[in-house]
Amino acid sequence: MWLISRYLCRHFLGYFCGGLAACAGLLLLVDLFDRIDNFVGRQVLWIDAAQYLLFKLPWLMYQMVPAACLLASVLTFSTLNKHQETIAMRAHGISPLRLARPLFVLGGLVCLGLILAQEYVLPYTNQSYNAIWRTRIQRVKLDLRLGAFKKGQIWYRSPQRLWSAQLGIPLERRLLGVTIYALDAAGTIRQRYDATEARHEEQGWLLLQGTQRRFNEQGLFAGLPETFSELRVGFPERLEEIIALRKEPEEMSLRETLAHAQTLRRQGVTSPTYFVEFHGKLAYAALCIIMAGFGMPLALHMNRNGGTTLALSLTLLCGFAYVILHNLVLALGHNGRLPPIVAAWSTNGLFGCGGVYLAARLR
């Protein structure tokens, strides 16, 4: 059985690597032709275009890994069936399900590889190609005097305070156009601070040129506004929490995605988007195991009824069906109509049940 397992693994890995290279290369060409007008129209240097495509390649490969697992599984068993090897193995008492065990192991290893890539590789490469796209290709101008900044209405909520600012400057550790609402345990506003500038210090915050207002339990003014030129307050909120520059979900690692989702929940934000993204990343990695096992009964059934061509056609159909269904239920999860776990894992469960059904029908 060890020799048979090695034989199957060698076939699977060969088809997997070839399929992954072909699919990722095709996606890279599609992306190149889609962006070619931007490269030519903006007279982008070839080195910048090459770096953009190079940093985007890991993301394209990541997207194609489950499809490559399904393709490799189908081609492996189609090849065995074509040469009557599955019949010979059955004659020696080896069932198709037993043959599929090495592929489940390989699928599990690929799943682990995707999780590690999500955690340590993709956040860096995705941030890099997005930065190249914005700064070197689209040539978005940044104010170099400010360094990196976040402009526009900034909102942040902690259990005791609600912050609002017009501009955040991380390198100078300050906020401009600041309003801070101090809340009691019931969520009622008890104090309001307005300042032209707030500077983050080791012991708290320094508010400059503003006013302080107090409110009673009914939410009415408890006195006249107090003006100040400087006011030190010991608020524990950190600048990094308030001014956090927004990342796209694909630019976050698994731990960052979960931490951001939990932070939003603590702030009272009810949007389930980042919980859906977290479970979606895990489900996408686990899909490799399902696809590695799903290909075996699919190939054996289709080779019996229509040959390898029909099996490959159904492989493409299954891939498109998964993408459509998965994106549909994820959209329902983002809208709050499905729980995050259901939205992320339901399509995996459907394909897993389909694989079990096809395997049960094998004779």
TrEMBL record:
InterPro entries: LptG, LptG/LptF_permease
GO cellular component: ATP-binding cassette (ABC) transporter complex
Pfam families for the chain: LptF_LptG
Subcellular location, record wording: Cell membrane
Membrane topology per record: Multi-pass membrane protein
Superkingdom field: Bacteria
Main location: membrane
Alphabetically ordered keywords of this record: Cell membrane, Membrane, Transmembrane, Transmembrane helix
Protein name: LPS export ABC transporter permease LptG
Species for this entry: Tectimicrobiota bacterium
Lineage, top ranks: Bacteria, Pseudomonadati, Nitrospinota/Tectimicrobiota group, Candidatus Tectimicrobiota
